[in-house]
Design brief:
Elements lengths: L4 H41 L6 H21 L5 H16 L4
């Protein structure tokens, strides 16, 4: 089945949106690592070791962000597999005559 130009444009937009979401998560993860290394160094120089608290809270946010990007919105393929399964079910229900 050949794709029409409209489908090609829609696929391009979807691909760009997913790539942007993944890139956003990679940037988020990089900033998380850099900032938390800096906080760990500052924490090590003080009497109290407090850096684990912001790292833990931010880590939860980073994990949720990754879950949404890679699993829920289709970046990881789960959404795409579910959509494909539904397409197949609908095709089976279609009257062949």
């Amino acid at each position: 089945m050949n794709a029409t130009p409209l489908q090609d444009k829609t696929l391009e937009q979807l691909a760009r949106k997913r790539a942007g979401a993944k890139m956003g998560w990679y940037i988020h993860a990089t900033v998380f690592i850099i900032v938390n290394i800096l906080l760990a160094v500052l924490s090590a120089m003080s009497e109290r070791h407090w850096a684990m608290f912001p790292a833990f809270g931010w880590g939860i946010g980073l994990a949720v962000h990754g879950f949404v990007v890679f699993l829920v919105t289709g970046g990881g393929g789960l959404h795409q597999r579910l959509v494909q399964q539904e397409r197949e079910r609908l095709d089976l229900q279609r009257d062949p005559w």
